[in-house]
Amino acid sequence: MTVPLHLKGYDIQCNGQKYVPSSENFRKHSSSRATSNSVWSSSSVIYSRSSKPSFSNANFPTTPEGRTYHLGTKGGEVANRILSVGATQRAELLSKLLDPPPNGGQLFRYLSSRGFLTVTGEYQGTPISIVSTQMGMPNMDFVVRECRAVVEGPMAVVRLGTCGALQPPASLGQLIIAHSSINIRRNPDAWSDLSTASMLPAYMFTLPVQADPHIVRLLAEEASSTMGASNVISGLNATADSFYSSQGRVGGNFDDRNEGLIEEMCEKYPDMVSLEMETFHLLDMARCSGGRVRAAGMCLALADRKSNEMLEYARLEQLEVEAGLAALRALIKTDLD
Ligand code: R1P
Ligand code: URA
Asked: What residues does the Nucleoside phosphorylase domain cover (predicted)?
């Protein structure tokens, strides 16, 4: 049965049970005391530039109370199931799907001076954090390392982003789950003055890294239920170090030598379907975590790189909520033992 969901103006069609949005579900409590088993403190915190924290340990800087340098969170404020999204606006939107802690108070919110927003609450009784990762692999590096530093025990991270649809079967508006990812980077040495530079490739491709197959399976099941199976595909992702040059976007202002790059990618990797900027690094970090981080990534196809079309923004927001629900449901089912 399809049940309409209402979330602040969004009319979401979702197969299965009736969902009560957390914004209508907030319990009003006078106490803001956190119980010993809750993973976050129940007060809202905004980290402002006017407060001047002092950091020690140049190797991994933290404040005396244990706040990390860029995300600004400390132990007890981040859940071990994390939904990483690019835009802060997407984090705000999806935080409406979370419930506050059962002991009262509000969702935990922390906006760091570097612009990373962490929101912690519960989804169907399980603690979850939503973190806005912003853009690019260095920012994903901050998120994974600094969350890992303040979370106890095993951790699961799902990325929900947007991407370009590279080639069929990918198309505009689909949710594309990465079963694996490669990294494509512009090779600056190819532009050097050395006589050998012309022999160098302008773009370099890494070997693929695999997503966690258990989380991939859960994401596919949950997304098929919230979005319809025909709107969900999986395939090889490419994470680029630029939205422009290394994703084959051409323009006259720079010597990018990328005119044939899209064709090269399609020919070399017939199952490559999505192009974006973070997934590879998330999967690579998980691979290097000694089993302490399980990760997967999926993206909504916002740009069709063959037809040159872009998805309408209003449609994107509705898809973000449907895909966000799928991510939350997959995260709470992820086995972390
Ligand atoms: C580029 O516009 C950004 O959008 C994609 C890319 O990976 C990059 O971060 O993802 P998000 O929508 O999650 O930011
Ligand atoms: N994000 C990207 O990185 N590339 C696209 O084409 C669309 C969104």
From this structure: 85-313
Residue 51 structural domain = 1-152
With a 6 Å cutoff on the Cβ, whether 173 touches ligand 1 is no
DSSP per residue over 90-152, as a string? Answer: HHHHHHTTPBPPTTSS--EEEE-TTS-EEEEEEETTEEEEEEE--SSHHHHHHHHHHHHHH--
Containing 196, the helix (H) or strand (E) segment is: none
Nearest-atom index, ligand 2, CA of 305: 6
Residue nearest to atom 14 of ligand 1 (CA): 86
Backbone angles phi, psi at 90, to 5 degrees: -70, -40
pLDDT score recorded for residue 5: 40
* Whether 112 and 52 share a structural domain: yes
Could you tell me if residue 43 is inside a domain? yes
Task: Give yes or no for residue 161 CB within 6 A of ligand 1.
Answer: yes
- Pick the residue whose CA is nearest to atom 2 on ligand 1: 243
Is residue 29 included in any domain, yes or no? yes
Report the pLDDT averaged over residues 58-84: 98
**Top mutation candidate among 278, 319, 320 for ligand 1, by most atoms within 8 Å of CB:** 278
| Contact 316 CB / ligand 1 (< 6 Å) | no
Looking at the structure, tell me whether residues 3 and 129 fall in a common domain.
yes
pLDDT digits 0-9 by tens, 230-275:
999 999 999 999 999 999 999 999 999 999 999 999 999 999 999 9
Q: Does one domain contain both 327 and 234?
A: yes
- Give the Å distances, CA to CA, from 16 to 3, 4, 94: 7, 10, 19
- Identify whether residues 84 and 228 lie together within a single domain: no
Mutate to test the pocket of ligand 1, among 94, 162, 166, 316 (most ligand atoms within 8 A of CB): 162
Q: Based on the structure, what is the number of domains in the chain?
A: 2
Helix (H) or strand (E) holding 320: helix 313-333
Would residue 157 count as lying in a domain? no
User: Does the Cβ of 320 fall within 6 Å of ligand 1?
Assistant: no
Pair (134, 195) in one structural domain:
no
